[in-house]
Write a structure and sequence with these properties.
The chain has helices spanning 16-32, 50-58, 84-87, 90-111, 138-144, 213-216, 237-240, 256-265, 303-307; strands spanning 2-9, 36-43, 63-67, 116-120, 124-125, 148-156, 167-170, 176-177, 190-197, 200-205, 218-223, 226-227, 232-236, 269-280. By secondary structure, it is an alpha/beta fold. The protein has a single domain (2-307), classed as Spore Coat Polysaccharide Biosynthesis Protein SpsA, Chain A, CATH 3.90.550.10. Strands 1, 2, 3, 4, 5, 6, 9, 10, 11, 13 and 14 form an 11-stranded mixed β-sheet that branches. The chain starts with a strand and ends in a 7-residue tail after the last helix.
Amino acid sequence: MNIVVAAPIRDRAWILPDWLAHLARAAKRAGEDGNEVEFIFLENDSVDETPQMLRSFGDLWPSILLKHDYGYAHYKVPFADRVRGERVNPYNDKRELAELRNMIVETFLQKTDAPLLVMWDSDVLMPLETLSSDPRSLVSMMKICPSVGTMCADVQHPHCTGKFHNYMLSTPMGGYNHPNRVRMVQTDQMIYQFVVGSHGQYITPSRAFGVHWEEDKLLYVARVGTTGGGGAAIIRRSVLDPPISARYGAHPQGEDISLCKAIQSGGYEVAMYSGLRGLHVPRDLYDGPLDLQDPYGIWIEDWLAVRSQTHVTA
């Protein structure tokens, strides 16, 4: 199966050596299972070495490199000198992200024939099995959940401890909230679940079992309101093609909301998968190198343990 991994990228030279090496390892792991991975990178307004790093990666791996600059003055301030609250209006920031992601979608549709697009943010490290045919990978979950149009992995952010970071649930008032990590997923939102036992893996479709995986080793795919907040999400080509033509859009809570609404209106479900646990790496806490070795992910309390691992080059 062909898979496209894509990301909009700006001023990420601080983590790109780690991130690109990590993608290369994940692509190699996927290739062992017969999954061919190619990349689409859209760089905008970088003032660091990001463009050069992406070009070097493109010499080694099949990649489409795109460029789009907004030219805003605040984009030209070096990362270390930026003040987040002064950099950009949050709504405009989501509008620009939506535009950039939609440029990637159009390139994906026009230049590739892959059935799956993975939006994998350039400050997120996911398990190396994410793109493989391992029974618990994100790709495998999309195969056994044909009703799902897009599915996100469970990504944790050090500044959001106690919260599920990479998706939101719908609220009765029509908005979206990140649920608390200790709160169980509602039993009527379960799409698929499986228990990992000592003698192997058992997969059972279910809508009535909501045991928390941290206590009972239950992994599940659950229906959610929207993906978002940064991380990794896999999207079916069929929801991007007509007649659904799902696209990103400006929204104060995230550019994914417009995409997910269109997918839901088209008869597909939006889901999160608890079996892949990634790490959203913030600039202020990163001093690299850093990689994930556990094939099914790590949590923040394990972060220090992996920081000393050997950096792997592409």
